[in-house]
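Fold this complex.
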Amino acid sequence: MVGGNINLKKRFRFGEFIAEKIIKGVSFISFAVIVLIFIFVFREAAPIFSPTKQTSTTNTELVQETYGEESSAASETVTEQKNKSVESSGSEGDATAKNLLGNEWQPVSENPKYGLLPLIVGSFKVTFIAVLIGAPIAILAALYTSFFAPRKLREFLKPAIEFLSGFPSVVIGFFALVTLASLFQNLFGYQYRLNAFVGGIALSLAAIPIIYSVTEDALSAVPKFMTEASLALGATKWQTALFVVLPAATPGVFAALLLGVGRAFGETMIVLMATGNAALMSIDFFEPIRTMSATIGAEMAEVVFGDTHYNVLFFIGSILFVFTFILNAVAEFYVRNKLQKKFQGTA
Amino acid sequence: MIKNILILLTGIIAFGFSQKNETITVKGSDTMVIIAQRWAELYMSKHPDVTVQVTGGGSGVGISALINGTTDICNASRPMKKSEKEKLKQRFNTLGVEIKVAKDGLAIYVRENNPVTELTLQQLKDIYTGNITNWKQVGGPDAKIIVYGRENSSGTYVYFKDNVLDSEDFAPSVQTLPGTAAVVNAVSKDKYGIGYGGEAYAKGINILKVKKDANSTAYPPTEENVKSGDYPISRYLYMYTRSRPTGVMKEYIDWILSKEGQEIVTKVGYFPVK
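Structure:
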């Protein structure tokens, strides 16, 4: 009943079936990994919401064994070391809501203060500066490449700018720390060499490629007939670009901006190196700041597992995570719906 | 000729593989990275069968690693805290072993042409807690003091806080930088900057003399002054292990405490414990 031909087809389909399952499996694994990371971050942050009273451990002096100190007894008087081992049980402060909403970040202290506000202000400030500087440059560059640049130049420019996004952020950060900071201080004469402004400029270098790339894609997605109609009506190239194509691509540009904000917000190395890391609550652009990501970057490696400080750092991590997650989701869905409805829906 | 080289190469490789390799991992204080690396290099060149891996990260990082069991030896520029000892006891049922390996004077840096040459401990405290904000108040030019410090994972941070600030909090405007080298770099470029760090790092900037109070004489952090205790901000540098060192580790630590090991301490710019 069954011909050889069909057999062959069946075997072929079987291979396809396997391949399909494998691909499906892989994509589900990556999805599962993301969900697990989500769970992990939140689980580590959770204890701050249910503070377990740290039963203060025995007050007996914990005397350590020493080694190789035969002759140092003679030099005991040499140093002035006030051995403060009677600190109030380490940095085990309680992370109450009041403490978390304070405006001081002093996690290593006799009574630790985990005020997150200066960190949040710092993160938003530097992100704002980065996008304020980066966005116009990136959008104009995208307009140029998709409208005015000769084809050959365009084929070179686009990958070149996108290549920038693969630039190691440590390098950008170091460049900002050593060169940009001095340059801008000489130029503007502000007081703090390392500040939000320098960090923002360095950060914009990281955000520009993303904003550029997505904007460029959105601009190219605008149907040709709109450009042609506009030109046919006698509009100049500039008018067409600015008043016809750019408005048509607004959702895409908006998405690009959101992605740029997300990138700048989560960036760690650049801000860690270039912003001075002082947890100040001010809106002055030329004062040092401390961002959430840089705080995690600088302190995570050092904290003791299970410490309140550790949990608070994870809490900061989950704030960052939720924020960038929302940004990315909005960017993604907004573009999907709006942009596609606009062109495919009505065309 | 080529044959000879080949034989030689195989010989070297075979020799390399035939060695049983013992690895000691050392992690911790950034202040001690240079010295720990010198020790490791010299020791490895004398004992090819031992590998010593050195990483920095800060004293807190090192102690955490010791508690988490990811390093054999931890470098720390401050003594272990009580809470850390407790954590270590919970995990490994040991309080750890403390080994004093060097002494260090904590230097105060300013940029080269700053007219201020000495400060009292009280002035330093006021600068870092934010009570003094202008160089004028300590006999300098009329300019805001740009204050640099270390990240709170650093032993130097804790040491400075305990011994200069009397455990008070740093002012929020203190800019914290990752690593002493970064502090030195920043101060060397900032006209009105001030920073602190290990004496060994201080190149291309001025080191201030420090006096205990307004009436005493100011001393620079030289070997004699640190040893005699005249320089008021000095500390020990420590190594910690979980249990009393044995075998290869014992040999390594004994060598560090030997005359040869302590000579390196002097060469790097710290002061020997013996």
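The radius of gyration of chain B is 21 Å.
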